[in-house]
Amino acid sequence: MTIRVIIGQLNELDDETALFARQLGIDGVQFNTPRLPADQGFWQLDDLVALRRRCADAGLHLEALENVPMSFYDKVLTGAPGRERQLENFQRTVRNVAAAGIPILGYHFMPTFVWRTSVEPGRGGALVTAFDESRVADGNLVDYPQVDPSLRIGAEQMWDNYRTFCEAVMPVAEECGIRLALHPDDPPVEAIGGVARLFNSPANFRRAYELAGRSEAWAIDLCLGTTSEMAGGAAAVEDMIDYFVPRGRVAYVHFRDVQGTVPAFCECFLGEGNYDPPAVMRRLVAAGFDGFLLDDHVPRVVNDTEWGHRARAHAIGYIQALLAVHGG
């Protein structure tokens, strides 16, 4: 396939957003934790097929799903009693996603999820989220289910939890012919409270690749913003591209950026962050990337919608221009 730009970060598709996508020349969509019945602990095939057909009826191709509800695998993440049942249900979800004709399922392995400590004024007063590790004790501004950060889960236990996940789920994904795309930890710090975070450096992603046995189903969601937050900033972005793209392990790319690196950073508009967007696009193309690109977190601009149509139009147009000029 060729590199393409899609819309994402939706949990459902309304007519207005479908029209917005088509007006921007986009024909693909990804959902983040889609609003599907979840009471049985896994996604049902009929619901997934209905979601894909809803997209098709709106003139959009369903490219991928990203993130299952935390309740589907919180015990898997933490190694708590009951994880075997959750692993069986995750296998059911993988089989059903594949049977519905959806080729990619993105996921994270962050028991304490995405963490932000403040909202700050960015360019022109646009609001952006920020993280400062010294303020973690003040709490998380991101309202999403997460485990209690006062739990004590060390790094080696988390690695064992991830190994158990891979051993149970990757063979099923291989059998079904879909890819599971791992998102970096955001923020990429060593721990939040007492809970270790693993996917905070290129070296740890390489360790995960080996731990998964280089499974054909194992891939990454290369979130450029989260990678840019890592120690090294732009150098970490280059490292991830140079290692994983030639190996065909980048399923898709979140094209966003931040200013600063851990322990403190803030989000920003494309073009004013740690890396040079044209150089990154050229690097992706030269390395052989052939997946899709999408915007991710965006600043909140004046008179925008809750989803951020205005800010996303800016980000999507920026990415489309980069691809037109540097896409080969």
From TrEMBL:
Required cofactor(s): Fe(2+); Mn(2+)
Highest taxon of the lineage: Bacteria
Biological processes per GO annotation: D-glucuronate catabolic process
One matching Pfam family: UxuA
Full protein name: mannonate dehydratase
Keywords, in A-Z order: Iron, Lyase, Manganese
Chain's role: Catalyzes the dehydration of D-mannonate.
Pathway it works in: Carbohydrate metabolism; pentose and glucuronate interconversion
GO terms, molecular function: ferrous iron binding; manganese ion binding; mannonate dehydratase activity
Catalytic activity: D-mannonate = 2-dehydro-3-deoxy-D-gluconate + H2O
Enzyme nomenclature, EC number: 4.2.1.8
Family from the record: Belongs to the mannonate dehydratase family.
Top class in the EC scheme: lyase
